[in-house]
Design brief:
Elements: E1 10-13, E2 20-21, H1 26-34, H2 36-46, H3 50-54, H4 60-70, H5 77-84, E3 88-89, H6 91-102, E4 106-111, H7 115-124, H8 127-130, E5 133-136, H9 137-140, H10 147-157, E6 164-168, H11 171-179, E7 184-186, H12 193-202
Parallel strand pairs: 1-4, 1-6, 4-5, 6-7
Antiparallel strand pairs: 2-3
Helix pairs in contact: 1-2, 1-5, 4-5
């Protein structure tokens, strides 16, 4: 864990595993539409392009329909796009964010997402109301764990990296943030809200 002498003014929140999660039934939903064999074939086509998609180099909103069409499954585009954007809210985490904002602590989303999933998150997850600002990798043109992601967010917010705390459930991302002077720690929603509050307090973010 990293510490900083700069007063913390805001928290950067990862999305998946922290404020939201993919439902355990996600693969079953895919199978229900396409069948297991076609689901696996579709994922084989798309997964090699995910990293490029979260950097914004590939538009998943175009690539997913194209992949389905290539497989002769064009009639399922709308339903599979729905499955792609199926996400569950983690209400306890979200309530914690609301409490922080009530105490005057800025809260911003800092997440790796492709453009298709981003569109569903914007339309359905209420992040524009829950958080002060939202930073999606596909729009920034750079993704975690690249330190340029964190620097870009700090530039957009016009603050020093040390004035932000970063919460993520991927250790590689946490270590990258720490390497560029951003106080950061690992937390997954299964670790519990009490643990989250304790770790934030260690970095100067107090929650009553």
């Amino acid at each position: 864990m990293s510490t900083s002498s700069t007063a913390v003014t805001a928290v950067l929140w990862d999305a998946d595993g922290v404020l939201q999660q993919v439902p355990s039934s996600w693969f079953e939903l895919l199978d229900q539409v396409l069948g297991k064999q076609e689901s696996l074939a579709l994922l084989d086509l798309l997964l090699p392009q995910v990293e490029a998609a979260i950097r914004g180099d590939v538009a998943m909103s175009e690539r997913l329909p194209a992949a389905l069409t290539e497989r002769g499954l064009g009639e399922h585009v709308e339903r599979i796009c729905e499955v792609w954007g199926t996400i569950d809210r983690l209400e306890e985490s979200r309530e914690f964010v609301r409490r922080l904002r009530e105490r005057g602590i800025g809260c911003h989303l800092a997440t790796n997402q492709d453009d298709l999933r981003t569109s569903y998150m914007r339309a359905r997850m209420g992040y524009d109301d829950l958080l002060d600002r939202c930073f999606y990798s596909c729009e920034l043109g750079v993704a975690k764990p690249d330190v340029a992601f964190f620097r870009r967010v700090a530039e957009e917010l016009e603050v020093e990296l040390g004035a932000l705390v970063f919460v993520d459930d991927t250790l590689e991302n946490v270590r990258a943030a720490q390497s560029c002077g951003l106080p950061a720690f690992y937390w997954h929603h299964r670790d519990g809200i009490d643990t989250l509050g304790e770790r934030l307090a260690e970095l100067g973010v107090e929650v009553s």
